[in-house]
Amino acid sequence: MPSRLRRLGLSGLLLGAAALLAPGASAADLKGGKLRVAIIGDMTNFDPMQFSTVNFPLIKNLYDSLIEYTPDGKAVPSLASDWKIAPDATSVTVTLRKDVKFQSGAPLTADAVAATLKKGADPQKGKNVYATMSFVKDWTVVDPQTIRLNFNGPAPERQVTDLLQFLSVIDPAGIDTVEAKPAGAGPFTLGERVVGQRIVLKKNPAYWRDKEPVVDEVTLTVFTEDAAASAALESGAVDMVYGSTARSAVRLRDAGYQLIQGPGPLVQVFRINSTRGPFKNAKFRQAFNYLMDRQAILRAGYAGLGEVVALPWAPASPAFDKSYNQAYAFNIDKAKALLAESGLPAAEMSNWKLLVNGSDEPSVLISQIVQGSLAKAGINTQLDVQQGAEFIDALLKGRFDAVFGGVGNVQKFPTRVATNSIYRTSNNPILGTPHPHPEYVAAIDKVGTTTGSGDQLKAAYDALNKSMVEAAFAIPTNTYDTGLTLAAKNVSGFTLDIDNMLVLRTVGFKP
Question: Which family does this protein fall into (predicted)?
Fold first, then answer.
């Protein structure tokens, strides 16, 4: 959609839910009933600002955001019926739908959006949304259905729409307890949660989208292993699997099951805690740019489904630069040269552990590959395998030397990468405050304030990419699909989400 049209508002340009649907039956053609979905791993909490992959089965089912993106990245209305970016790009005025109620029965108002913005702007409560809020100065409630967000300066259009899409509105009455109890306006309500076993969602009878959700009830059954979830699908015990591994997805696709791939891949990143041990040394960290056998990682961990990358961007990102893949290809000799330049003794270079998510088979496999590559360079490290909540806690709180972890938002405006914990520019839970890599922080800020021509933006992207490989606190290896969905033949109506989150409001059974 042209920039000029969006600046003038979107009245009369509304796109229906069908624009987001994958090929197949529409919601109106499907039958309801009870949908059984296998998920891999239990959720963290009900806060939509906790943008962890384990929460992806819930966010879009319990909450709605202000706007949405179609699979090809076009912004379309959701809770916001209209939005207008000011001619000087220093604010956006958002108009809300009038027919939306939270699951508590309270109406959606501009005050509710303001309360959500306040939470997002809090460095402790805002979680993954906090970094995305960095360009917002304040906001003004214009009237009960209108709110204006004011920026610190001119903001790129895509940065503005990314925030509106990322912001799931929370009922003010439930903000303080949202981790334990959902407080959204989404298509489903919480029926039951049994920790580590299942989550039951019930159809929201007051949901604002016509004829949605299709099904009356969804049971999300927690599986600790992908193989068990796949077996449940094959036996007919579940109708869908969300979060399948690439290897299982390829096998079951070839066996005749539906494989649904969304438009929002993750990038696998070797995360480095540059405040610890030998990783304080820049040359030592930079050697890891060459110590990643990316092709082997992609084959072993993801059955070849994905792209090799040396930067944290999907190929569709405007900051993507394929030349880095060749410049930082696997090269033991270049790595050894940087290790020698580091001046670190051999014993110190091996004095750390690689944290491994033992609940995730690809992470185990790729960690073993890296362990072998490091040994070729004279670095002998141990694998610290942890499971489930223990691993997640260590990952999010920075209790590791190095670890593999996927990052999202890599198909959006480049500053969105800072919503991921390792890339946060402030209040970084791993690297601390102040940020130990100011060149990277300055480069992110420059991208976020550049609204000029394509050449100006490209220069900002180039500077950001250079700062990332030089700081080397995070070494990308490949893209991969999160939220790979497998389904029985009688299930249809899949909605493709730009972040590959699970969207169930349009899913039903074929007649």
Answer: Belongs to the bacterial solute-binding protein 5 family.
How open is the CA angle 509-510-511, to the nearest 5 degrees?
115
Please spell the DSSP secondary structure of 368-428, one letter per residue: HHHHHHHHHTT---EEEEE-HHHHHHHHHHT--SEEEEEE--TTS-GGGGGGSGGG-SSSB
d(CA 309, CA 236): 38
Residue 231 has a pLDDT of: 98
Query: Whole-prediction pTM value?
Result: 0.77
3-182+483-509: CATH, from 3.30.360.10, 3.50.50.60, 3.90.76.10, 1.10.357.10: 3.90.76.10
Q: What is the DSSP string of 257-322?
A: -EEE--S--EEEEEEE-TTSGGGGSHHHHHHTTTS--HHHHHHHHHTT-S-B-SSS--TTSTT--T
Residues forming a β-bridge with 482: none
| Of the candidates 409, 413, 411, the residue with the CA atom closest to the CA atom of residue 449 | 413
- pLDDT tens figures, 25-70: 666 789 999 999 999 999 999 999 998 889 999 999 999 999 999 8
In percent, the amount of the chain with pLDDT more than 90 equals: 80
Per the structure block, which two tokens stand in for 351? 């004095």
Among residues 268, 267, 282, 290, the alpha carbon closest in space to that of 473 is found at 282
Residues of the chain with CATH 3.10.105.10: 266-480
What gap in Å lies between CA 175 and CA 285, rounded to an integer?
40
